[in-house]
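Colleagues,

For the teaching module next term, I've prepared a clean inverse folding example: a structure given as tokens, and then the sequence designed for it. I'd like students to try predicting residues themselves before seeing the answer, so please don't circulate the second half yet.
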């Protein structure tokens, strides 16, 4: 599946093609004569251009050579690089802050950020630089102290503090931040919503969600435009000439006005800009590679490896070594030794009391009451849209309920109870309580930029405060128990759906939840992969953890469920043992539903 060598041996031969007694056929790669002609033509044109450039004495290459490493030019170059580095660094830091403010839940922060971007994108850089340069006229001194009192810690002349260089750095930073903020926000918006849900369900703190889950994935969208912006900045620094700051281009202008060798000196500037651009492109390539971890099933080889491969025939796909080895049937390697029971926490009891929830006019949950005993397995059935997912999400407070409450071992997840009043808890406290409830999603929602192992250890380390060694040892054990002993280093995209879902189960189990929620865990899987996931859940069902499972797998429900719940239009129509619900259902709607899915 990964190897595409130029010549390969084919073992499988379609029926009907006579082999002539040979077991293997040779494959000859397709030939593209037009491409060859195009390449030759391009080379001729390039040669003609180079020839004219180097044979025409008016280009003045001797003057070029004289000035290329001249001291004032290098000083100007240094200033350009410094301004670019400082402007880009501070601009991106400020821009990240602005973007996070913009997507934060706070309307105040979001509008402040919006206002900043609106203002700074409107003001031309040159105007901004001039205003900063004339700040000394507006404010003669800059004082740090307590506002509206006489207390001051220091006071300086504005012109003394705000040198042209400082004005240039501040101006470039302020301008850059406005554009970077939008680029970063675009990156953040490109991250799948499921990633945030999964991070929240694991109880990861907000800051950790941002730095570990969202920004690394956003980087893939941010980097190409971000580097465009930096390259633009490197050339845009020439704008600071109005502050009489001799950066590269301004220096060049000064020189050619004196010696009138315009073209050679412009060439000096051009070649230096080419060098800067090449270095930046090289850096960009490597940073992009770093952040593309797990984004592709078979990551492309690095430039060096690619070059080496090109010249060593027969070609070997370099990716073969990087892609995790694919295993044979997963069931075969499932650890049969100790059961999962040893690794999971004791189950908790869930009480759902009179819970209602509406989205606008639509009542999605309508006075639901249900008791789920500790260590039991509850299967929830019902048509699409009947409110099953909403109920599960309410249990771990991913969804707020409008009325009623849900308690786990007597503790409310989203609220503090005092008498008859429920006080909603802060996000941070909810995240802490949520760790008692694990969740497995229909679409797995594994973090694609982290390996299977990293997915599993993330929350135990950052939420439960385990040491890395402990977490890794336990994660290996869990992965082995779900039959993925040799997949620890694979990225989610290198795994089959069934394998991904089993990693997701291991990830939820690593937090030792009292209750584990499954929302249609096998619905996104091909039929032949359903069994391997159900097998893991069956094993869990006997382990003592409380399980609540939304599924359409009736056979599975019959086998493992202690109680079966049938929902319709936000209400529970029927609760009972599998025997009662499947064989002697009380409600005709249940019978109709079962007739459809069985
Ligand atoms: P199920 O999981 O049983 O298929 P859900 O709990 O996902 O059903 O949804 C129940 C109903 O609530 C559906 O009609 C769905 O369209 C609606 N719904 C779910 N989430 C939202 C939301 N965030 N906003 C508006 N409607 C929603
Ligand atoms: Mg659903």
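(Answer key — instructors only)
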């Amino acid at each position: 599946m990964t190897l595409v060598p130029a010549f390969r041996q084919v073992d499988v031969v379609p029926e009907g093609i006579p082999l002539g007694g040979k077991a293997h056929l040779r494959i000859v790669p397709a030939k593209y004569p037009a491409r060859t002609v195009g390449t030759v033509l391009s080379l001729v044109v390039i040669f003609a251009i180079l020839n004219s450039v180097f044979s025409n004495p008016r280009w003045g290459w001797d003057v070029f050579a004289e000035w290329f490493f001249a001291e004032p030019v290098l000083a100007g170059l240094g200033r350009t690089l410094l301004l670019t580095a400082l402007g880009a660094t501070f601009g991106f830091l400020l821009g990240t802050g602005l973007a996070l403010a913009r997507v934060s839940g706070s309307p105040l922060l979001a509008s402040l950020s919006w206002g900043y971007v609106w203002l700074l994108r409107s003001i031309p850089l040159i105007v901004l630089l001039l205003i900063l340069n004339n700040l000394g006229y507006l404010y003669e001194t800059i004082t740090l102290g307590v506002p509206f009192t006489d207390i001051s810690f220091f006071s300086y002349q504005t012109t003394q503090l705000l040198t042209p260089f400082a004005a240039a750095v501040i101006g470039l930073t302020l301008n850059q931040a406005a554009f970077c903020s939008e680029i970063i926000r675009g990156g953040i918006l490109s991250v799948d919503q499921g990633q945030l849900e999964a991070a929240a369900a694991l109880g990861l703190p907000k800051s950790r969600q941002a730095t570990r889950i969202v920004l690394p994935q956003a980087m893939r969208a941010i980097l190409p435009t971000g580097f465009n912006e930096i390259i633009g900045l490197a050339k845009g620094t020439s704008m600071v000439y109005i502050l009489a700051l001799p950066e590269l281009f301004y220096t060049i202008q000064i020189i050619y006005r004196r010696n009138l060798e315009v073209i050679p000196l412009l060439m000096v500037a051009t070649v230096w800009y080419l060098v800067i651009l090449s270095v930046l492109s090289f850096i960009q390539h490597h940073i992009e590679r770093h952040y593309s971890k797990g984004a592709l099933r078979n990551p492309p080889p690095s430039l060096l490896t690619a070059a080496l491969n090109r010249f060593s025939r027969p070609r070997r796909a370099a990716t073969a070594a990087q892609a995790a080895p694919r295993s044979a049937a997963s069931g075969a390697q499932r650890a049969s030794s100790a059961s999962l029971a040893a690794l999971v926490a004791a189950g908790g009891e869930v009480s759902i009391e009179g819970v209602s929830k509406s989205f606008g006019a639509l009542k999605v949950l309508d006075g639901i009451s249900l008791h789920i005993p500790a260590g039991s397995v509850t299967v929830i059935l019902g048509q699409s849209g009947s409110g099953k997912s909403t109920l599960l999400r309410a249990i771990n407070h991913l969804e707020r309920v409008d009325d009623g409450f849900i308690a786990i071992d007597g503790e409310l997840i989203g609220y503090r109870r005092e008498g008859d009043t429920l006080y909603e808890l802060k996000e941070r406290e909810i995240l802490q309580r949520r760790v008692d409830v694990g969740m497995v999603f229909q679409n797995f929602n594994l973090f694609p930029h982290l390996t299977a192992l990293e997915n599993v250890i993330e929350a135990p380390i950052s939420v439960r405060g385990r040491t890395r060694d402990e977490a890794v040892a336990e994660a290996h054990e869990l992965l082995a128990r779900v039959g993925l002993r040799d997949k620890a280093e694979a990225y989610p995209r290198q795994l089959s759906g069934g394998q991904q879902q089993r990693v997701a189960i291991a990830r939820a189990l690593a937090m030792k939840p009292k209750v584990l929620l499954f929302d249609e865990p096998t619905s996104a899987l091909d039929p032949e992969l359903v069994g391997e996931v159900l097998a893991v859940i069956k094993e869990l069902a006997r382990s003592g953890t409380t399980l609540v499972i939304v599924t359409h797998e009736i056979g599975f429900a019959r086998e493992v469920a202690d109680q079966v719940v049938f929902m319709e239009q936000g209400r529970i129509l029927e609760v009972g043992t599998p025997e009662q619900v499947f064989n002697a259902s009380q409600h005709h709607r249940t019978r109709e539903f079962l007739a459809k899915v069985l």
